[in-house]
Amino acid sequence: MTALRLDNLPEDVLLKILVFTDIYTVLTLSRVNGHLRAITSVKQLWVLLTSDLLMRGLFEASLEEILVKSSEELKAEVKRIVCGPRTWSPDSNSVPALNRRYWVPLGDNRASSIVLVPGGEYLVIRKYTDRMDTNLLECWNIRAQRRAWTWSRIGCTINDFKFTACRGSKMIASLKLRDPSLSISHLLLVEVDLDTGSSREIFQISPFHFYGQIYSISQVEDDYFSCVLATDYTVSAKMKLLLVNHRTEQYVTFEYSDAKTEIRIVPYYVFLTCPANEPVSVHVYTIASLQPFWKPLVEIDLESTLADVMTSPLAVLLVREHLTPVDKSRFQALDAMFTIDQSLLRRETFLLRLTDRNGYLGDSTTSIHRLDFSHLQEPRCVLLSSVDTENTKESVGICVSRGGYTLSSATLCKEGIMATRQRDHASKFIPFENGTRRARSAVLTPGGGVMILRVTSAEVFYYD
């Protein structure tokens, strides 16, 4: 009996199979022969692949934009997000060219901060109001220039906020609210419908649930969010990282040590920087492995045994495998910061960027790793690059685009800003169209755009 070859399958059957693969597999098959190249270039396939990325908040485009683009244009868009705009590369002789620009008016109220919701379609701006004890959030559909949602609470200031990626028209906002009259903060989760502009409160934690205070929000991802709690109100208060499943109203605690511990949540995994009593590293847990340690939030106890002591991590990733005597002498000054991004190309694969910085000397080490969790029993970690810098004057930013660029805030001016490639610290100046008079701040979008907060408007620039 003749073996059935992959390229002998009917086109419709092969397309149905490819939909369940990833972009890396599709691109690999396209290089086998002419027949498979034609099949893997069908627009319907690329619409489905990029629509899946859009629903997971990994692709900065709208569904309407995906539908009108050709398969080659969608491939180019994926490449731009993965590698960064081609004109940003310090190796390119081309001047960075503006691809598209979105503008949101601020009105009479001054804005204090700006956030792009994962997926790139919605922008959230925190504004001051006439009341000193109240501010508000405005969420804008930047492509339609339409205000989609507003939120405020009289007598509460919004100190911090995080958002999940949009699932259809729904997202979850995690808000840290402060009541100035009582000098206390509490955390509130709000489910938002961006089609109707309506929202409902679905969960909250306040200091009345425990003796202490809410220090900061770390992240919110689907059913989970994390925050840092202080065990009391004193200067010497111990900090605890709290991982919460707001659907089941259960929690797990982790050690928080001298602001060196950070947490990131991605689907099925939790990434945690280690306590300060060991070399700087990242511990990786599966959410399933924490199942025995979940406790009801109504019984919250910050003095209970810690989950990271009771269960072994799936993997331990070292920032530096060996600490030299000089490293050990300054170890308490090391800060470990990291970003973790799902790969657009491969399923069950992540890109991890680690930076440890000496707060005394200003030098830092940045390493970039590819993590493959397709085999849970033996996760693969591949070091892609590592670079050292000495006497860094400015602090190392945690905002890194998927293309691996950071912004140098010290270079922000009305003409533009410097983008630095993290894998080798090479830089290139990114000019702004017509300047950005009175620009107050600039941050990167994950997909390789630049957000500018001005006195009169908020703007997002995307480049070729």
Automatic annotation (TrEMBL):
- Please give the InterPro entries that the UniProt record associates with this protein: F-box-like_dom_sf, F-box_dom, Quinoprotein_ADH-like_sf
Pfam annotation, one family:
F-box
User: Locate the F-box domain: which residues?
Assistant: 3-49
Read off the PROSITE patterns from this record.
Answer: FBOX
For this protein, the record's SUPFAM superfamilies field holds: F-box domain (SSF81383), Quinoprotein alcohol dehydrogenase-like (SSF50998)
Protein name in UniProt? F-box domain-containing protein
Q: Which organism is it from?
A: Favolaschia claudopus
